[in-house]
Amino acid sequence: MLNLGEKDGSVVQHRTVGSTPSRSWRTWLIGRPLPTADAPHQTVGKAIGLAVFASDALSSTAYATQEILFVLAAAGTMAFGAVFPVSIAIVILLAIVTISYEQTVHSYPGGGGSYIVARDNLGELPARTAGAALMTDYVLTVAVSMSSGVAQIVSAYPALFDYRVHITVALVMFVMIMNLRGVKESGRAFAVPTYFFIASMYIMVGIALFRYLTGSLGAVPSPPALEAAHALRTLTPFLILHAFANGTSALTGIEAISNGITAFKEPRTHNAGITLVWMSSILGSLFLGISFLSKHIGAIPSEYETVISQLARTAFDGKGLPYLCIIGATSVILIMACNTSFADFPRLSAMMAADGFLPRQLTYRGSRLVYSRGIIALSLIASILIIFFDASVTGLIPLYAIGVFLAFTLSQAGMARRWWKIGRLQPGREVKERGSTLRYEGGWKAKMIINGFGAACTAVVMIVFSVTKFFEGAWVVLVLIPLLVLLLRAIHKHYQQLARNLSLEGFGQPPTILRHRIIIPISSVHQGTLAALQYAQMLSDDVTAVHVSIDPEESARVHQQWETWGQGVRLVILESPYRLFLEPLLQYIDEISSLRRPNETITIVVPQFVPKRWMHNVLHTQTAMMLRLVLLFKRGVVITDVPYQVG
Amino acid sequence: MLNLGEKDGSVVQHRTVGSTPSRSWRTWLIGRPLPTADAPHQTVGKAIGLAVFASDALSSTAYATQEILFVLAAAGTMAFGAVFPVSIAIVILLAIVTISYEQTVHSYPGGGGSYIVARDNLGELPARTAGAALMTDYVLTVAVSMSSGVAQIVSAYPALFDYRVHITVALVMFVMIMNLRGVKESGRAFAVPTYFFIASMYIMVGIALFRYLTGSLGAVPSPPALEAAHALRTLTPFLILHAFANGTSALTGIEAISNGITAFKEPRTHNAGITLVWMSSILGSLFLGISFLSKHIGAIPSEYETVISQLARTAFDGKGLPYLCIIGATSVILIMACNTSFADFPRLSAMMAADGFLPRQLTYRGSRLVYSRGIIALSLIASILIIFFDASVTGLIPLYAIGVFLAFTLSQAGMARRWWKIGRLQPGREVKERGSTLRYEGGWKAKMIINGFGAACTAVVMIVFSVTKFFEGAWVVLVLIPLLVLLLRAIHKHYQQLARNLSLEGFGQPPTILRHRIIIPISSVHQGTLAALQYAQMLSDDVTAVHVSIDPEESARVHQQWETWGQGVRLVILESPYRLFLEPLLQYIDEISSLRRPNETITIVVPQFVPKRWMHNVLHTQTAMMLRLVLLFKRGVVITDVPYQVG
């Protein structure tokens, strides 16, 4: 029941209006809206957790070896021998990063993404940098994984090669819609393909190794042609570093677990930590196995057939069912790998928006309780990249992983600094930070060294990366990230200044308004004009109607009709020799406005014609609309639309 | 000086604000704005008049013969012999139409376009039909003439063939800009190319005829390949009628003079009449000459080389300077031919808009005193057609000329009816119609028969046209014109109904407003909110603030701050379980609105955030804007934006 007329005790009244969102095409596409109370509080165990968070990291085994080979190819097929040593170096790096992240997981039970760790320990600039780096990389993860997934499919069905860009973009849109729906039961849905992938990869690697040991593993039958470099180069240390840098793309996705700790069952840091170790072990062993075998079967890196496809073909002797299983499992896990970005990018951008670094709208959860705007933004930017790079993994890879390693470095450095802070604390004291609570811990020095070493290693890799791949495309990212950081800062400044300007701190009541002047622009005299006039007269006694004269005949008619209907209200007719409407009116309002005394308000009452059907708007000049857009920027002028609907 | 405060004798006050339009890129493109007083009142004599109005008609000699040949080609090159007889038939039709239009020119000294003649004599439906037919054809004239002009250029420089669509569209844009500037000195500028064209065509035809008579005119050297039909057809009467229909495109543009009579010097009907005869004579003789010669030199219709080009090449023995003169003159006159449409289409649409058949905005004259919107509309539609038809004259021709002949028929029928009305008048009496004045004239019967015969002939041609070219594309126009007629009627109905609804006839003053209820939606409490609150309190004592609660924390803060700053105004907090903002608010307003008593007004006062820079809008949810769009459609609800600018 509404009882607005009476005043009851309190001036504040709570009401629930039963407005369920209306059904529309969006309901059909992404499902019925969910009330806020439905927010999921589901947690997962280690087995499901591995499935949910590992797809991104594990999927990189599908392209890491190949990307190393692509670089080595510049020195001819003989150089392919270097693939295994390079892979061993990468696995060592993987171990360092894993140990380093183990500590992060235990320190940030509420989730310790690079942005949070950098923000709490290093300050605003490193936090913004980590944020920018991560956002760049999430976008690239979607582009690279999806392109690689489609490359697997194309290897099996070469006829699809010409449609790879279309297929890739369509898949991005599909994953976007799935995420807009909100993947509630994602855990279980993820488990099947992830474990299927792990199992089938181990089987393939196992069989191939067995055949290798028994001497029955031959070379790839009819391998794709080697896209020969212009001139063969020698295997310089630079080339090896370059190959190493390309291979480090295997490490992307490692940070996923540290972002998602809250999703694990209690004891969650324990569970998350163990899952991280599992994940790294599987990743490392598969990657080593694939690199070793690729060299021995003489796999050739190619846009037309992936190394995985060549290996599967060789291990299983042709494109039989086992081959198709491998290709299918690889494609699916690559497509699922995007999902990590789809989970993390919107969450990160919402967090940064809440901190005032990104537009506030990103904090808004859509009808399905997901950060829909972040999801859509991610899909669009990734799709543009895919189209721009023709869905080529090799084209995208030079841009990739720099952001991840920058974020790794900042995160590990932040952790090191956190240990240092912990070392200064008195035992028993607690310091609450935004992302975690600091307590003194024994052995902080060792832990600080571990994280510090991790930071140093990833920093070196990042530099190697930037230098070796600079001209191939890494420069784009090296330019983009600083620009993003600047943009984040500008946004932050805007919000801060706004908050200061609007703050009620030390703010007295605004001065009372003493005089209220009203201007009604009219183009002709009709029922709508009179309704606006009457409304204006209700507001104030000081009303002036203004008519801009473009056509003298029309003006004469207005003049004459005003004598009858104007109720004695003053009418000013503005001559407009250049047939302009807005400009003379604005100039008049400016004049009045400049004569305005303090405590005086000017209101423009605009009779706004509203046709019954939207289409009919085409038949009417939208002067009221234009007037409003322009007047909004005038200080101290209020705009009122008095609509008159006619059917 | 402003003295708005004091009341002087009259309530109506005239003022001139010195607002000259500001300079911008538009000034650069189309020139400085012109005041209304500058409207041109220039008139032209017969020689310049011929140049201005004849380009459209004369230019059709450039393609009419070729389009006849294209049809005859279906029956093989032997059938080309029919081109001369068919051309003679067309010239006879030309004579009939010319005589018929002579009478129109003398009857409508104020301009006697088909629309006016049909409107004054036949009624609204025929007027609308004539209007729709003419508009269709003006668009096609631009598309056909421009494409044909470019085809001439391409004949001379075959390398440009692949760019013909780009060139054609670019030329349309060029002519558009010229017309947006307002072609003030058009007369003289037109005279040179038109007379150059006439002279060079006569010279070419003369030389070729002389060489033919002396036996030295050979066949076309290396003519373009004949694009052979699938199977040769015999020369049926249908094919001949079809060829005839294609050739009647030569008659398009004949009506231009009757539209533009006011542009002639006094005695203007006399001058216009003579100019019309000149024009038809030149057109007829050139067309006959070209058709005769084309047959004799064995010219082949082709997309790659125009018949004019083949004829010039043969007459002048190769692509020397004389050849280039002919091609240049033909291209220029074809491009200029568009100008007739650019003059007539905007004028016709402004006239129809003033009568309420088209959107009123078309009556507005732009900064250069031309009907800029009509000019832009014409250019865009013509460009789309050109792109769609690949700038192919042969592709466009089946759509062409139906509209013109429909307009011819209606115009002549209207004239016949006018003579009939004149025949009923008593001598000495005058009847004023909108377009002309009726006085009794002797010999009205003969004149009625002449116009009636003209109408019958053009009607027959139109039917021949529709039937023979139906499947080639004429059906498009035959579907389009009735649709356009219906659209014009719908627009007219809308304006009529609107005028009735807004009419002040028998309208008393609106009832006085007794109660004024105000609702302020607020999302948080800050200086902007308080400014809006204060404004609302000035308007009425009955103010309610409404907060839609999406985030409970935010709502609690609003609640608490309201206690301090709310000045005792009631605050309603609406729970929104689905995180919707607009819907609960609208539902609340609906409830209040449904309880509204008569003489009660509801005003929604929206605090509207206005950032200093337009770009910053991206950082703010545009709820005020959305709210306004939705509320506009609610009856009896006024929307007020109280802007708060922050920098």
Structure, briefly:
Chain A is built from 22 helices and eight strands.
Describe what this molecule looks like in 3D.
- Two copies of one chain form a homodimer.
- With 647 residues, chain A is of the alpha/beta class.
- Chain A is 59% helix and 8% strand.
- Chain A contains 22 helices and eight strands.
- In chain A, the strands form two sheets. In chain A, strands 6-5-4-7-8 form a five-stranded parallel sheet, sandwiched between helices.
- The first copy, chain A, is elongated and about 110 Å long.
- Chain A starts with 11 loop residues before the first strand and ends with a strand.
- In chain A, 49% of the residues are buried.
- The model of chain A is unreliable at 1-9 (pLDDT under 50).
- Shape summary of chain A: elongated
Give the overall pLDDT of chain A as a whole number: 85
Q: Main interface pair?
A: A-B, 107 and 107 residues
* pLDDT < 50 stretches of chain A: 1-9
Oligomer: homodimer
Would you spell out the secondary-structure blueprint of this structure?
2 copies of one chain form a homodimer.
Chain A: E1 12-16, H1 25-30, H2 46-59, H3 64-72, H4 83-107, H5 114-121, H6 124-156, H7 164-181, H8 186-213, H9 237-247, H10 256-259, H11 268-297, H12 307-315, H13 321-354, H14 372-388, H15 393-396, H16 402-424, E2 430-432, E3 437-439, H17 444-468, H18 470-502, E4 515-521, H19 527-539, E5 542-549, H20 552-565, E6 570-575, H21 582-594, E7 600-611, H22 623-631, E8 637-646
Parallel strand pairs in A: 4-5, 4-7, 5-6, 7-8
Antiparallel strand pairs in A: 2-3
Helix pairs in contact in A: 2-8, 2-11, 2-13, 3-9, 4-9, 4-11, 4-16, 4-17, 5-6, 5-16, 6-7, 6-13, 6-14, 6-16, 6-18, 7-13, 7-14, 8-11, 8-12, 8-13, 9-17, 11-12, 12-13, 13-14, 16-17, 17-18
